[in-house]
Specification:
disordered N terminus; 43% helix; 7% strand; mainly alpha
Amino acid sequence: MTARTELDQTPRPVAIVGMHRSGTSMVAKILSEAGLYLGPDDALMPPASENPEGFFEHLDFVSLNDEVLNDAGAGWDCPPPRATEWASTAFDRYRERARELATPLAERGAWGWKDPRTSLTLPFWESALGPLRVVLVVRNPLEVVTSLHRRNGFS
């Protein structure tokens, strides 16, 4: 039997990912109720008519994901090029911010964040925080499209 290092004993962050409108909010709510710390209530996106129970998205993680995607020439609805080098020095300033966001959450024990954009930026987050636990939420693509059409008017 080998001795565990301090790093091994530190809970790895949990990234809750999946396409928008796939059920990530429901899964985040359940994990939060089970003890996963997602941040203080005032840092989370407030409920809205399309998600009356809440989104469970930490607004600072959403903002950082948007900035990282923009720098990669992408957006939540336009994936970055496959050749994006997430570990490159071009993303260093964002990695530092990611660590600053993570620090107070990690002090609470089991922690994580939910943002569908992380589905596109996961390699960036791994380059910033190290190994992650990932909960991937999958929903029938036709139901996702129907929900996006209803919410955003997408064709």
